[in-house]
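PROTEIN DESIGN WORKSHEET
SECTION A - STRUCTURE
LENGTH: 354
TOKENS:
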């Protein structure tokens, strides 16, 4: 089974200097990960790798393609939703062709935790404790995404924005909020609510928010676009989508991000992460791929090209973003974000998702 790699139009043309840095960095990683002899380097650069990616091609396609081109590894990528790919992995079981599962959130990784193998210590120790599997070493965080309220700056003053997610259930916000309840990031946020607030308080809030007639969208991107167009006044999204719009449309883009920083689920910093399947046929190349993803080279890509938070020490956050240390997210364990099935059950009970 082959899944061809291609990059999106938005990120297809990387800055040549950045591409050179990627290539040099990959070459150095290849040299340090194996023997220094030419034969060993050639052998280590051969072979293939199958990645199931719950992260969209527009975000990670270019960096995966750079890895393949510089390493000589034939990288095959199957893109899809994280939940969809987790279900596919469970269905395929021991017969899966996947070597690596690159998921949008810890919930997707937790759904297939029994299919993921332990990782070498040098890979997992590259990121902070909170950004990797807390029980064992079955997956490692790749980048951070903060939850924010995106708002239309022509229609809403930042001083009038909520300081707590629960404020959005107030009648003053009726019909003015956009959400994407079927989206994995939204469901991860609700999972964080269940951990921080408890089941009943989360259920009550979600019921109240639903009764406030939020407008539903399939994912983050159309929420940001709708906010800028004045279709809604505010929306619940991940922070980096706004900056992708500003990069294309310029500073006149009407939407901006509001970081709540209230130590609640609305300030949640989620990690995308990746693990290696127990049945991986290309284990060596899979480890090489993860080492690259937590290297300075790849982390700088996420910081500068996709506006995400790097997780590796020494890589600077994009200048447009507040430091990750100041976001004041909820005090919950990353393992608490794995119970997405419980969140989906709650949302179905309330008639929020089918």
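SECTION B - SEQUENCE
RESIDUE ASSIGNMENT:
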């Amino acid at each position: 089974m082959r899944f061809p790699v291609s990059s999106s139009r938005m990120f297809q043309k990387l800055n040549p200097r950045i591409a050179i840095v990627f290539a040099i960095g990959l070459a150095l990683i290849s040299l340090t990960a194996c023997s220094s002899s030419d034969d060993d380097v050639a052998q280590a650069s051969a072979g293939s790798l199958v990645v199931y990616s719950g992260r969209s091609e527009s975000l990670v396609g270019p960096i995966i393609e750079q890895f393949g081109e510089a390493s000589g590894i034939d990288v095959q990528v199957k893109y899809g939703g994280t939940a969809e790919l987790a279900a596919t992995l469970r269905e395929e079981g021991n017969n899966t062709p996947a070597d690596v599962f690159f998921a949008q959130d810890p919930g997707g990784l937790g759904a297939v935790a029994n299919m993921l193998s332990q990782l070498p210590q040098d890979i997992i120790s590259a990121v902070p404790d909170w950004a990797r599997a807390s029980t064992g070493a079955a997956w490692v965080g790749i980048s951070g995404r903060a939850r924010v309220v995106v708002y239309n700056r022509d229609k809403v003053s930042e001083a009038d924005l909520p300081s707590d997610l629960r404020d959005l259930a107030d009648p003053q916000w009726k019909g003015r909020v956009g959400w994407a309840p079927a989206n994995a990031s939204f469901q991860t946020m609700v999972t964080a609510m269940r951990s921080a607030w408890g089941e009943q308080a989360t259920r009550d809030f979600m019921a109240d928010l639903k009764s406030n007639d939020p407008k539903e969208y399939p994912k983050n991107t159309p929420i940001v676009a709708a906010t800028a167009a004045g279709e809604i006044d505010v929306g619940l999204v991940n922070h980096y989508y706004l900056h992708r719009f500003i990069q294309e449309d310029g500073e006149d883009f009407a939407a901006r991000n509001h970081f709540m920083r209230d130590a609640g689920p609305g300030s949640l910093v989620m990690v995308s992460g990746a693990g290696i399947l127990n049945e991986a046929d290309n284990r060596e190349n899979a480890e090489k791929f993860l080492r690259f993803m937590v290297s300075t080279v790849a982390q700088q890509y996420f910081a500068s090209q996709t506006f995400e938070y790097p997780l590796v020490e020494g890589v600077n956050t994009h200048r447009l973003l507040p430091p990750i240390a100041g976001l004041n997210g909820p005090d919950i364990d990353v393992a608490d974000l794995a119970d997405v099935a419980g969140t989906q059950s709650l949302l179905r009970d309330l008639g929020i998702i089918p």
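SECTION C - NOTES
The longest strand covers residues 140-152.
The beta strands are 48-53, 74-79, 100-103, 140-152, 177-179, 215-216, 234-238, 255-258, 269-276.
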